[in-house]
Amino acid sequence: MVYICPRIHFYEINDQVWFPQYLREKVQSCLAIAWTFRAPVIQKTSPAKLVATTIYDVLSRKTTDYTYVDFCAGAGGPTPFIEQHLNAQLQNRLSETRGAGVKEQVGRSRATRSRQETTGVVKFVLTDLHPHLPDWTEASKKSENLTFVSKPVDAANAPVDLIDNDGKKVFRLFNLAFHHFDDDLGRAILRNTLETADGFGIFELQERTISSLVTIFFMGLLFALITPFYFWRSPGHLFFTYVIPIIPFVLVVDGYISCLRSRSPDEVHALMKQCGTPSDGWAIKSGSAQHTWPSGYMIYIMGIKG
């Protein structure tokens, strides 16, 4: 992995208070599609499904031990789709297990098993410092395994009893979010995570490489092609894409800035060591998976408490 520069904490246009909320929502809607869209030929699967597969592969049989809490959910982002894909994979595993005639564990009573263990599903919870209640309410109607916390939640100061996890461990999710935090805030969030959670996953669709910058550029062109199919009912979205192209401009520029703000697994691990809470007993697993051919890679950093 060859990084083009040290991490630089620039500021993204879409995060600025002066950027109109109307346009911010349009940009966010495009980012949501970037997580769920699968371009034929160049994408084997959507990035959201890739995250679900990574969680399943890394945690393996322990996947159902956790409740998954998105601490920077925004308007919902990819989490509702990650929930769908992960639970679908768990259901497939359960069906294969039953089909193979695997016997119940000796001494384990069916009557005492939780519903999640019986059906092989896991719960997801949406939280944010600025809750998007209308969006979350709509998303939660589509799945009984998706809920939300209606009050503001500070990822750097989340209480241990934030959710009723029914005896499950807590696994924090940061989907395309951790690069937004400067080093001080990143350390504070990791400190709170080590103190109150049992695992975490940082998932980014970009990194500080030339190939990632190239991918961001072509992402802007892709949205210019697909916008009429997704936003044809929104004259404003069409206007700010083709007449005054603010939306694609912000997507590409903020995408470049996101690349420069992204951290490597070693840099995240260094923040953990500096956060003030011992990380002994935590296993860190990291890697990458291609989400867009030929140059787009998802980077993941997952911490698991032993």
Record the SSE blueprint.
Elements: H1 21-36, H2 47-59, E1 66-70, H3 79-99, H4 115-119, E2 124-126, H5 133-140, E3 146-148, E4 169-175, H6 183-196, E5 199-204, H7 210-230, H8 235-243, H9 246-261, H10 265-274, E6 282-292, E7 296-305
Largest sheet: 7 strands, mixed
Q: State the order of secondary-structure elements, H for helix, E for strand.
A: HHEHHEHEEHEHHHHEE
Question: Major sheet: order of its strands?
Answer: 3-2-1-4-5-7-6
Relative strand content: 5-15%
Q: Helical segment tally?
A: 10
Uncertain segments are 105-118
Rg (CA only): 20 Å
Q: What does this entry look like structurally?
A:
This protein is 43% helix and 15% strand. The protein is of the alpha/beta class and 306 residues long. A seven-stranded mixed sheet has the order 3-2-1-4-5-7-6, sandwiched between helices. Strand 6 (282-292) and strand 7 (296-305) form a beta hairpin. Helix 1 (21-36) crosses helix 9 (246-261), helix 2 (47-59) packs across helix 3 and helix 7 (210-230) runs antiparallel to helix 9. The radius of gyration is 20 Å and the shape is globular. It starts with 20 loop residues before the first helix and ends with a strand.
Question: Which descriptors would you attach to this protein?
Answer:
globular, 43% helix, alpha/beta, 15% strand, 7 strands, 306 residues
